[in-house]
Amino acid sequence: MQPKLIRISLALICMLALLGVARLSVKAADTLPGQYTDAEFWRMVTDFSEAGGDYQFENFVSNEISYQEVLPELSRLVKPGGVYFGVASEQNFTYIDVVRPKVAFIFDLRRQNTLQLLIYKALFEIADNRADFVSLLFSRKRPAGLDANSSAEALFQAYSEAKPDPQLYAATLKGIKDRLIRQHRFALSADDERKIEYIFNVFFRGGPRMDYGFASTAPNPFVPSYHMLAVTNDGRGKNWVYLNREESYRHIRGMQQKNLIVPLVGDFTGGKAIRTVAQYVKDHGSTISVFYISNVEDYIQPKWSDYLSNLALLPTDNSTLLIRFEPYNFTTLGKIQDVPPQWPGTYFH
Predict the structure, then answer these.
(1) pTM of the entire structure?
(2) Secondary structure (3-state) at 343
(3) C-alpha count within 13 angstroms, C-beta hemisphere, residue 326
(4) How many contiguous H segments (helices) and E segments (strands) does the chain have?
(5) Is 276 helix (H, G, I), strand (E, B) or coil?
């Protein structure tokens, strides 16, 4: 079955009020570090994660064409300096840029997503500007005429006709492995390395026109490409994507260099990842500022009570925001009082 495109809805809530639980009073000073060592980062990736699971799509890139529509309101309401929770892949970088947390944790059921985010981490560290980053990500030589003032539109238009370069691909893949294994000393298994090669080859073959399930599904004209997602806007004319401004790119790059974007293997209904990170945040006197859950709720109905139990453990305050998808072809914005039951129908990314 082909994934259907869905649009985003921002639910602005206080999580504990949402769950009918007394509010948590965080009295301790915020002791979250401003940087993690490589050993600390890898210990979190390893110790906070749980066993990987399966998902019917590989999810190489977002299919959430409207995810920027909530950003004007999110930027107004969010309290910077907390902790960001998210799911899936590159759309998190745009949310993180807007939210400005001290640290971000990105969960996904599949270890493959964790490895993909480690590829991103390596490329952010290697490339000191957006044009070079896109060149390395898709293994295309950098076109002439791009500079720090180039918009995402200009950037992706310049790369739209660029051909895949096998030599650049091989050199970049080696650079990714060197960065992760030899420089950072992350203990990646042989299977991890094979999956990194597989993921990076998908970006090489697909280029900027790749979409959500490029390697595992037939092309779908209703699913946005990486290019399309990078040049769209919030419906009011502003493009918030992290690749649209050099300052946004530098912000995410800086967090990656400080090991502050931590990818984890985690199930929203599981007994370890969400709970372990929630306790870690609580122990450091901080709170969750934003939890981006996409439409994961559509898939976890058999374990709904476990999901609610995990939400109840999150250290939140009255400014904590939840971002979720609504399975309709329109976008709404508003407060809700309770986690809703299963959305009508079945909806797939």
Answers:
(1) 0.88
(2) coil
(3) 16
(4) 13, 7
(5) helix
